[in-house]
Structures are given as structure tokens and as C-alpha cells.
């Protein structure tokens, strides 16, 4: 179930954490291309709710997704401190909007648990696993699940 | 395999001529830059603007030449396929003049092989039956693989091939032909192409309309909206040179609030108008009959009101891009027109593939992304009628209009300041202004040398019981022509040509040469019967 993309023999993974509303989420740092702060999103009328719009990433058109809407989370987005996490999926860069970015957590694969069928109100298919860190529960996103295959 | 082919061919064969052109352009560019730097150092605006223009020209040329180094004939790709499937695929000359970006051609090699193999593996294909052809239409390059007798279904297309084609932003389709056989149509966009586009905006969002789809740009001043934009059923249409075009309101379609530039403070304000058509616009049922028509009196009042029209501001004009694609021709209503720009079409991500509204996206000079409208899909999505359907509607409307009260063109002029006259425009030849000194009095009448002959001139006082005209330096003359005979009527300006509903009161003023009186622009106007006048008075005066 847990896809171990980390090739290191120690079995350690680095998880970049971020916040959407009250939820603490994580993405395997190897899935992340970069995290952006300065950006201008062009809305795409008549597209799905899940799509925030498109942005220019050094000459590439990148689709930016409303991570909160996909996961069914409410957010307290004020558009100021927002960050866009650019992930590389099937050769395409895709942006995920986060309210704010947290720490990078180093964890051993063995302490990452299987995700429950749903976590909070979020469906289980969006998660790769769950990590308990300093009393916080971090839901590690399954990028393919979030991006819709 | 596919990954490899992307990386193997890293060198390009470019004709020396192109390279030489590029070299000399590079030299020009350096000169332009030096000139620009000089201008900036000396803060000389003239030099800066001259070098700016120069660099602009050179850049376009370099862009063009570099593009050409990347474009290659589809022929090369076809050649490879022919070689591999010798005996199966026959030569087809079309495709020689169709060019595609080399990366697309290279990437297409494998999927095209796979597709041809599908036909061969099918078992029903005879030798030399498969043909390849390529043609270009509206920003797409189509590659067609036809099989003589084999018929496959779209499910038979190898996933891998379909994936690669979609990766290029293209589509592959199977079209059955007759009882047996089918065409495999691969539609490839010119993704790396640079296309000239008209930039437009709705609210604060900019959209590009490919120039290939654009026929013309219309700007309907607010005061003319009621005359030009009509409502047929629920649809709004514009009459353009006799042709009836459906209108599509981009702001309503994309659900973006319209904005207009406030003439008072120069700020953009949300537009409060919802309908394009003025409430004074004529309305028709979808079968062409008039639903609501202004009373003739209203028409006159409207003419009067024009001067104080609330929507006279230039900025509240309606901007319409007349576009065509496939079988559709329509007017796309936008807030503003911007410049025409050469834009680089960039592919959009897989999440937006389902969104039919756009043909792609581009990055503007300010770094912001703008979307390129898909003119054909916009029309289909909104269920617009095709050109032939609108023509039928247009015919119906015309029939409807003949039953309507007739509108007639009249020429309106004055004798003295407060004496208003009108005459049917039918007999008006020209409206002239002569110097009074050139008017001669010969044989008891006024004449003027006019276009190689003597034009007899009259004034109203010779016909009706009105004061004669005061002497002026210049004299306005309306030249009429009745039964091939020309004569001029000396008048006091302004001379106007108007379209009015003729609603003449024939009782209040009965006299030969007069049709009656009517109110035009709030003035009681004597409507002349030029034919009768010419016959009964002018002949006698002659």
C-alpha cells in the first residue's frame, strides 16, 4: 500500500508539511518540484471547481488546483500567505495551493501507518499514509489520488 | 523507445541560406541594441523610439526565421513510414507542403507506425492499400491514414499511440467510409506555433482570438445599439450589411462581470446593463414576426432624443469581434479590444483537456497567462445556429419587415430658418454647394454650369407662397433628377438625410406638389411630391 519512493537504504523519508485550514498535510519531498510564493493565477472560466486557474512557471503553463476543494476542506485562505506547491506528475508540473508551509519532517518508513478509510472528513484514497509527529497527525498525500489519476 | 527517440536526434539540418539570414539578423540586432543603449545614455527619446521600432522589426524577423528552422515537411515522416511498410503503404504526394514542428514530427514517428500496424495486423487490408496524406486547416495539421477495406474501431487504437498523440495536444479519431474501410484521422495542433491573435478582455481577464478566426471588429456606439442589435426570440442578433449574425456574449458565457471604463473618472466600473439589445431595439419572434414595434410617433421622438442619449459615452459602446469557424459565423461581444499580438501557443495541462472553451494558453508580455478562445467550440457549446440557418432566419425577418410600416429615406432641408421641407430621397441626385457668383440668370431663369450642362435652379418661393432666400456667398442646392431631367432646388442648410416612418398627414395641407405634412425631429415639415412638382410647376416655369 505504501509506495516507497525513497531509495535510501535507511528507509527514511522526508515529508514536507503544509496547512490547509486546520489540517496538517504532507507530501514526500521527492514529489515536490518547488514551492512558490510570488505568483499570479489566471482564472479559467467554465472549468471545474477543483481548478484555481493557470500560472506561468518560467514559460510553462501550470494548472493550479484548489487543494482544499479537492480534499473537501474548509480553508481560511486570505490569499496573502498562500503558497503553491509544484509537483511533478507524469512529466507535467501541477500546482497545489496551500494556506501555509510547515516544517520538513524526517521519518522512518516503518512509523508511517496505513491511512484510515477516512481521516477527518477527507477520503482515504487521497492518502499514502499517516504520520504522528510531535502529537500532530500528518496526512501524507497520495499525489496521484489528489490529482485524479 | 519513445523516450529514446526524443533524445537521439539532437542535431538539426538547416539550410545554409536560413543560417545566413539569421547571422545577418543577429548583426542587425546588435546594431539596434547599440543604438538603444546610446539613446538611453543620452536620454534621447527620438533615438530610443527609432531603435525600438528597429528592434521590433528585427525580432519579428528572427522569430520567423527561427521558426522556419524548426518546421519540416511531413513528407520526411511519411517517407520513413513508406520505407518501413513497403508493399503496404502507397505513396501519396500530399503532405509535401504541410509543415510541422520537428519535435512533433519526431514524436509522431512511433505512433504513426503503430497505427499503420493496426491496419496490417487486421488481416483484411490488401497490399498497397494504405495511404497517407496530410493537410492543414484552421491551426491544425491533419494526418489521415486511410485503409482500403479494413475497418477498425476507436478501441483498436493502441493506447500508447493515443497517449503520445494526446501528449502533443492532438486527437486521433476513426471515421468509417462507406461499407468497408475507414480513415484514421490524427489532428495535431501547431502547439509550438506562433499565431497572430486579437487580444480582447472581459472585466480584468484577457482572452486571445486567433486571427484566422477573425473577420472584422465592430464597435457599435451606444446610441446606435437600438438600431443595430435586434432580438429574435431569446437570441440577440446584429444585422451586418444585410447579413444576420447571431451574437454571443462572452461575459455571460464565461460568467465574468462586464466592466467599462468610466468616462467621468477613468476607473473601470462594473457594467450594469445585462442585455445587449437596447430595450428600444426591434424585437421579433423566432419565426420573424414583429413582437413589439415602436409606434411611428415614437420613432420620431427617438430621433429627437438622440442628442441627449444617456449612452452616448464612447466607452459604453458595444465591441463585437465578428468571427467564423467551421460552419459558424457570429459576433462575439467583449468589453474591450486590445492590440493584435503574435502569441506563442502553449499546451495546457491534462486537467483542462475537458474544458472545450479554450484552444490553449499563452504567456503575455507581463508574464500573466491568457487563454486562447476556441471559436468553433464556443459556438457549438452555445448551440448557435450555423450560417445557413441564420440566413433562413434573415429571410424570414425580411418578409416580416415588409408587412411592417415602411421606412423611407428622405432628404430634409429648410427654406428660411423655420420653414422645414422634406422630399423622398429617391429622386435626389446630389447635394451641392455653389458659389453664388457662378449662378447665372439667363432667359428668365437661374442656371449654373454643372457637369457639362446648364442646370436650372429654382427656389421654394417660385413654387409656394414662401419668402425668397436671402443672398449668401454660398448656396446649397439639392439636385433632383426626374425622367432624366435634372434640376436644382436652392435650400438653406442643414441638409439631412434621414430614415423615417412616413406617417404623413394629407389633410392639413392640400396642394399640388405636396404630399402633406409630418413631424420630423419635432418640426412640422412639408413633404414634397417631387414628381408632381416637376410635372406641374417646373415645366410651366421653364
User: Which stretches of chain B of 5+ consecutive residues score pLDDT under 50?
Assistant: 1-8, 291-314
Lateral arrangement of strands in the main beta sheet of chain A: 8-1-2-12-11
Q: Please give the largest β-sheet of chain A.
A: 5 strands, mixed
State the distance separating the first and last CA atoms of chain A. 16 Å
Question: What percentage of residues of chain A falls in helices of 4 or more residues?
Answer: under 10%
The overall pLDDT of chain A, averaged over residues, is: 82
The total strand number of chain A stands at: 12
Q: Calculate Rg of chain A over CA atoms.
A: 15 Å
- Helical fraction of chain B equals 25-40%
Mean pLDDT of chain B: 78
Derived structural class of chain B: alpha+beta
Number of helical segments of chain B? 12
Task: Summarize this structure as a short list of keywords or feature phrases.
heterodimer, A: 149 residues, mainly beta, five-stranded mixed sheet, 7% helix, disordered N terminus, B: 542 residues, alpha+beta, eight-stranded mixed sheet, 12 helices
Secondary structure layout plus pairing:
The complex is a heterodimer of chains A (149) and B (542).
Chain A (H helix, E strand, L loop, with lengths): L11 E9 L2 E6 L3 E5 L14 E7 L2 E6 L1 H5 L11 E7 L2 E7 L1 E9 L9 E2 L2 E2 L3 E7 L2 E6 L1 H5 L2
Parallel strand pairs in A: 2-12, 5-7
Antiparallel strand pairs in A: 1-2, 1-8, 3-6, 4-5, 6-7, 9-10, 11-12
Chain B lengths: L1 H7 L7 H26 L3 H26 E3 H11 L4 E2 L8 E3 H21 L7 E8 L2 E8 L11 H9 L3 E6 L5 E8 L4 E9 L2 E6 L3 E7 L4 H4 E4 L2 E6 L2 E7 H5 L4 E3 L6 E3 L12 E2 L5 E3 L3 H10 L12 E8 L2 E7 L1 E9 L13 E6 L5 E5 L1 H7 L5 H16 L4 E8 L5 E5 L3 E8 L3 E4 L2 E6 L2 E7 L14 E9 L2 E17 L12 E7 L2 E6 L1 H12 L1
Parallel strand pairs in B: 2-4, 9-22, 11-16, 13-19, 24-32, 28-30
Antiparallel strand pairs in B: 1-3, 4-5, 5-7, 6-7, 8-9, 8-20, 10-18, 11-12, 12-13, 14-15, 16-17, 18-19, 21-22, 23-24, 23-30, 25-29, 26-27, 27-28, 29-30, 31-32
Helix pairs in contact in B: 2-3, 4-5, 5-6
